[in-house]
Design goal:
alpha/beta; 9 helices; 9% strand; globular
């Protein structure tokens, strides 16, 4: 695929302000915030070659702030993108008690985008299988993933877009590090377990705080994620709080950690599948990284200007 630029400079908006009575100040904040999210989303799409000409992208819409933001930002980017691609929004109605079935069809109908509501009673399956008091999230997500893969086939989707953002990626990294003993996170682009589907996360560079602000300014009809009554993921909640404490107490630490995920030096880790330690020899060939890993004080990395906010995108 030829490299193309997805970082929008300007373009039409597919939705109006949060309300007819929005103040000029609120409107300016929304426009600046939207520009920042569009720019970061465009960067991620470009860096990881997420979208190709002719793609039919299935946007998974849960009714939460992340998926609403993903759908609207992709619609805006589509208007100015250098390639043509289709979007279809898909929601999986899992028949949870109290789920407001009318919210998403009403919203998507008003937005004027093709959509599909898949009705599958996974709630009953989860409640029957998972003991009372145990979290249902693991089984629920596996069932949901299998159904969405099937729906993607039926709709002829070439990509499946999920609303995970920068903080989700960092939280997953630390959860694997602290509790799984692995250096692993959710990548911005990957092939599904069955090898048949391409999953993309266009919001990979977008901080959660920007999505929270944008969702509030846009007034999205949020559907709460606790309808099934399952217990919250306490470990993820703890990790999220850790990152927010870092952001407040040590400005730049979270950004630096996220940047490190794209600057891995396999030779300076301990995985024997990545480095042939047994066959390693001092043969006189210079190594760029050398033994700098032994320095007491690591050399500070220069600021990553890619993620700096331009003046016209300041809140």
């Amino acid at each position: 695929m030829q490299p193309v630029t997805f970082i929008p400079r300007a373009g039409p908006s597919v939705a109006g302000d949060a309300g007819a009575g929005a103040t000029a100040g609120t409107s300016r904040r929304r426009i600046a915030l939207e520009k920042r999210i569009r720019r970061l989303t465009g960067m991620a799409i470009e860096h990881f070659a997420m979208i190709e000409d002719g793609d039919r992208i299935m946007v998974c819409l849960s009714g939460g702030k992340d998926s609403y933001t993903l759908l609207e930002i992709l619609m805006k980017i589509r208007e100015v993108a250098p390639v043509r691609f289709e979007l279809i929004a898909v929601n999986l109605d899992q028949k949870q008690p109290g789920f407001p079935e009318h919210v998403l069809p009403d919203y998507l109908g008003a937005l004027g985008i093709p959509f599909h509501i898949e009705n599958q009673d996974t709630y009953s399956i989860v409640k029957r299988v998972v003991p009372e008091g145990k979290t249902t999230c693991g089984l629920c997500s596996r069932l949901r993933r299998g159904i969405l893969y099937r729906v993607a086939d039926e709709l002829g989707a070439t990509k499946i877009a999920l609303g995970h953002h920068r903080d989700d990626i960092l939280e997953t990294f630390f959860l694997n590090l602290f509790h799984g003993g692995k250096l692993k996170t959710m990548p911005p682009k990957l092939v599904s377990d069955d090898g048949r589907h391409m999953v993309i996360r266009p919001l990979a560079y977008v901080p959660e705080r920007d999505i929270e602000k944008y969702a509030a300014l846009r007034g999205f009809p949020i559907i709460p994620c606790n309808l099934c009554g399952s217990q919250p993921n306490l470990k993820r909640a703890e990790t999220k709080q850790m990152l927010r404490d870092w952001e407040r107490q040590h400005p730049g630490r979270v950004e630096s950690t996220f940047r490190a995920l794209s600057q891995v030096v396999p030779t300076h880790l301990l995985d024997t599948t990545l480095q042939d330690f047994a066959g390693l020899r001092a043969d006189g060939t210079p190594h760029a990284d050398g033994d700098t890993a032994f320095d007491d004080v690591p050399v500070s990395a220069p600021p990553d200007t890619r993620f700096q906010t331009p003046a016209d995108e300041q809140d």
